[in-house]
Amino acid sequence: MTVAEATSPTLDNNDLAAIEQHAQIVPIKAGDTIFSEGDEPDGVYFIKSGQVSIVTRKFTDEARLSTLGSRDCFGEMAVLDKARRTASALATEDCILLRLDTSAFINFMETDNTAAGKIRQRMAGRYEELILAEDVLAKAGIKANLLKVSIKGDPSMRESAFSRERYESIADTAMNKLLPVLEDLILNRSAYHFFVSLSSEEVRIKTVFEPFGDHIHSCGKLLDPGYIERHFPKMDYSKKTNLIRHIYATTSEHPAFFSAPSHFQKVFSDYYANWQPVSQKEIQSTLANVPTLRTIPNFYMRNFSMSMVHDAIRMQFNCDGTHIISNEDLLDFIRQNVE
User: Fold this and answer.
1) C-alpha distances in Å from residue 193, one per residue of 28, 136, 310
2) Does residue 143 sit within a domain?
3) What is the bridge-based pairing of β-strands 301-307 and 313-317?
4) What's the domain count of the chain?
5) Residues 306, 225 share a domain
6) Would you say residue 100 lies in a domain?
7) Is residue 104 part of a domain?
């Protein structure tokens, strides 16, 4: 059970008895799949006895969203959203389930039954949990935990990685001069995010003065102090942090924000309230390790992006694989893959 569900009202035996009058009884063996992510919904399930795990896929990994027991329900979101299943349900024990088909469940939810009210409250919590589980960077700005996501790319790229000759790029020749410039942009100027293509000389930069789009710059231009002064005004890191917080606060107070569903508002209100910038020390440490990742003999990094807003560095390698990890976990990543 998730934190959100633990604080929601639970169904009692009377609620379950009311549901059973309209439901089909479904026995399930431990280890069986009740439904899979991507399935069309066949109804909503209530657990009379036993235990069920709800899991979803994050690229190549499987994440457990919750473990449910007696008097819990699951599968309702796909029915009400008229969408495919957003997660899989697996029986971890022998179970007796009650299944309301789609029409029976919708009719039940339209009544004044106390169980329907409890289900609606639990659904709001589950929507919050699902948004956080599905969004790779949802928690990366609030130091909730270390982030490790690996995304497989084109298999043919990996298979041919050893046979493709590597050439030194403009970014390689400028690396020693470029990295201090990038550090200066994040720590001392208006930039808060950048993407660097190490296979070319393209650098995409976001600034707090134009937060909704990238501006594309070349490595060569960024090595010109005059160019830096013209495009990226100096800004103290703490002042930039305060400006980002102000933007978040303004967003959360705008009428458009209140037109979003309540569970969505809560997720982002919590995010805005708890957001912390990446520490300056972590930014310096991450940039200091870029040359190591670029010079790996076989599977070397070909582009990366980082931000002061999300505690995550995104790296793509010549084998077309992508890794998204927290700045704090970068040294462990290097030890596991380089040393």
Assistant:
1) 49, 17, 9
2) no
3) antiparallel
4) 2
5) yes
6) yes
7) yes
Those residues whose C-beta lies under 8 Å from the C-beta of residue 141, and which sit 6 or more positions away, are 271, 275, 276, 309, 310, 311
Pair 153, 73 in one domain: no
Can you tell me which residue has the tokens 């569900």?
Answer: 5
Domain co-membership, 130 together with 183: no
Which of 130-134, 279-283, 289-293 shows the lowest per-residue confidence on average (mean pLDDT)?
Answer: 130-134
Q: What is the CATH number of the domain that holds 101?
A: 2.60.120.10
CA angle 45, 79, 115 (to 5 degrees): 55
Domain that holds residue 255: 148-337
Q: Of 86, 64, 58, 286, nearest to 151 (Cα)?
A: 58
pLDDT in tens, 79-128: 878 888 988 999 999 999 999 999 999 888 887 678 888 888 777 777 76
pLDDT grade for 252, boundaries at 50, 70 and 90 = very high
- Beta-carbon contacts of 68 under 8 Å, excluding residues fewer than 6 positions away, are 1, 47, 51, 52, 53, 54, 74
- Token pair, residue 145, equals 């935990």
Residue 176 belongs to some domain of the structure: yes
Nearest-Å Rg of the Cα atoms of the chain is: 25
The separation between CA 148 and the C-alpha centre of its own chain, rounded to angstroms, equals: 10
Token output for 70: 């007696």
Phi and psi (nearest 5°) for 294?
Answer: -80, -25
User: Are 296 and 169 members of one domain?
Assistant: yes
Sheet of 210-218: strand order equals 148-151, 322-325, 313-317, 301-307, 191-197, 202-207, 210-218
